[in-house]
Specification:
Elements lengths: L2 E5 L4 E6 L4 H10 L7 E4 L5 H12 L3 E4 L7 E4 L7 E2 L1 H4 L9 H8 L1 E5 L12 H9 L3 E5 L2 E5 L7 E3 L5 H12 L4 E5 L6 H11 L3 E3 L5 E5 L7 E4 L4 H14 L1 E6 L7 H10 L2 E5 L2 E6 L8 E2 L11 H9 L4 E5 L9 H7 L3 E5 L2 E5 L8 E3 L3 H13 L3 E5 L2 H6 L3 H7 L3 E5 L1
This protein binds uridine-diphosphate-N-acetylglucosamine (UD1) and phosphoenolpyruvate.
Phosphoenolpyruvate binds next to helix 12.
């Protein structure tokens, strides 16, 4: 099992490129199921989750090949589908596999998708995906761990989800593009990956309004056509590097990063004492590594993202003063805390709130990654800890970061992968 070895204490300087967003690429790969014509996706990040999604789509008969136009572009062709099933073996390794449900049902009138189940950060049910599709006329049963859905043709409906759900909004949005009549999604997610998907669908011939707001209106069409689309830059990868530089100190430009998608994160890092400036397609962060601990609360976009909670917590651990961190999205997304404490962090947990007492010094140790962003938080802590930190189980990190250690090394970090 691969590990990362980090020798802390180096400043980070230079320039790196931010990859396409995992959480946009995954639904957009699934959107290829909505048309019989080829779809070209550019700026696809090189991640384990993308490989898993491609494997799943290939099992269904989607032909995939690299594009001749660019190294990071892929062509997907769902002209000859042979299976409408997402098997447990693939879904269990990546929850985003649930995103094939809406497109399969809308285009083929049937789908059999394994229930994803929970994961380290929470129980993560998909009841809202199911209820939304039922409201659109689908006949759905859950049997032997599978969602079995049928509908001759989905019908437009007004759907208000019980909570804001990102993949729920995406599944229903994709399904509604081919439904008969108008669908209105109320309480829709506004995370930038949702409007990016909507823009791709519009370029495929879908009729969508209101994406990027909490009310999305979709007028179904008979069929969609091929498209060439560029995946939006990954705001969470960019935010992770902002935190790494803020904590370790240094001066780094993130090429391709979009500051307009990172406002809540940038505000908090400025409050902590980092200096951040931005322009069209770049963000620059400079820090002397002497920060204040800042309190924050995760919530739906545009508020502070849960996917940045572990990384900013790592920054808080070495800040001056104390901070309270409330996690409101997932019920058990604090698994990194005991590992941060192994590095000397001082943290107490009270339900869904963590109280961090900053300390000037962390000391390297062996720690275990428990989920994707927890791993990123531990890497940040390792960059500032004295001596050597080993981060074990980094397969979690590889799910969602495109060669994080290579980029950090380019910036001057002493970090290497042990195989
Ligand atoms: C692939 C992808 O895009 N993943 C992101 C997506 O996950 P994902 O789309 O799975 O997360 P949701 O937005 O759906 O989850 C929000 C909350 O709603 C609950 N819920 C959701 C759906 C449902 O049917 N029933 C239900 O109870 C969840 O358990 C959670 O407590 O948004 C999360 C919240 O920004 C991010 O952390 C993930 O990185
Ligand atoms: C929780 C995450 O991803 P997923 O929804 O794919 O588990 C994440 O990207 O931090």
């Amino acid at each position: 099992m691969d590990k990362l070895r980090i020798r802390g204490g180096r400043r980070l300087n230079g320039e790196i490129a931010i990859a396409g967003a995992k959480n946009a690429a995954l639904p957009e790969l699934c959107a290829a199921l909505l048309t019989a014509e080829p779809v070209t996706l550019a700026n696809v990040p090189k991640l384990h989750d993308v490989q898993t999604m491609l494997k799943l789509l290939r099992v269904m008969g989607v032909a995939t090949r690299p594009s001749e136009s660019s190294e990071d572009a892929l062509v997907l062709d769902a002209g000859r589908i042979v299976s409408r099933e997402a098997p447990y073996d693939l879904v269990k390794t990546m929850r985003a596999s649930i995103l094939v449900l809406g497109p399969l049902l809308a285009r083929f009138g049937e789908a059999r998708v394994s229930l994803p189940g929970g994961c380290a950060i929470g129980t993560r049910p998909v009841d809202q995906h199911i209820k939304g599709l039922q409201a659109m006329g689908a006949d759905i049963v859950v049997e032997h761990g599978y969602i079995i859905a049928r509908a001759e043709r989905l019908k437009g409906a007004r759907i208000t989800t019980d909570m804001v759900t990102v993949t729920g909004t995406e599944n229903l949005l994709m399904a509604a593009t081919l439904a008969d009549g108008e669908t209105v999604l109320e309480n829709a997610a506004q995370e930038p990956e949702v409007p990016d998907l909507a823009e791709m669908l519009i370029a495929m011939g879908a009729r969508i309004e209101g994406h990027g707001t909490s009310r999305i209106r979709i007028e179904g069409v008979r069929e969609l056509h091929g498209v060439s689309h560029r995946v939006v830059p990954d705001r969470i990868e960019a935010g992770t590097f902002l935190c790494a530089v803020a904590a370790a100190g240094g001066d780094v430009v993130l090429r391709g990063a979009r500051a307009d998608h990172l406002e809540a994160v940038i505000d908090k890092l400025r409050e902590a004492g980092a200096s951040i400036e931005a322009g069209d397609g770049w963000v620059r962060v400079a820090s002397d590594g002497k920060l204040r601990a800042v309190s924050f609360r995760t919530s739906e976009y545009p508020a502070f993202p849960t996917d940045m909670q572990a990384q900013l917590m790592a920054v808080d651990c070495i800040g001056e003063g104390s901070a309270s961190i409330a996690e409101t999205i997932f019920e058990s997304r604090f698994n990194h805390i005991p590992e941060l404490m192994r590095l000397g962090a001082r943290i107490e947990v009270d339900g869904r709130v963590a109280l961090v007492q900053g300390t000037p010094r962390l000391s390297g140790a062996t720690v275990m990654a428990t989920d994707l962003r927890a791993s990123a938080g531990l890497v940040i802590a390792g960059l500032v800890a004295d001596g050597e930190t080993i981060v074990d189980r980094i397969y979690h990190l590889d799910r969602g970061y495109d060669r994080m250690e290579v980029k950090l090394r380019e910036l001057g970090a002493d970090i290497e992968r042990l195989r």
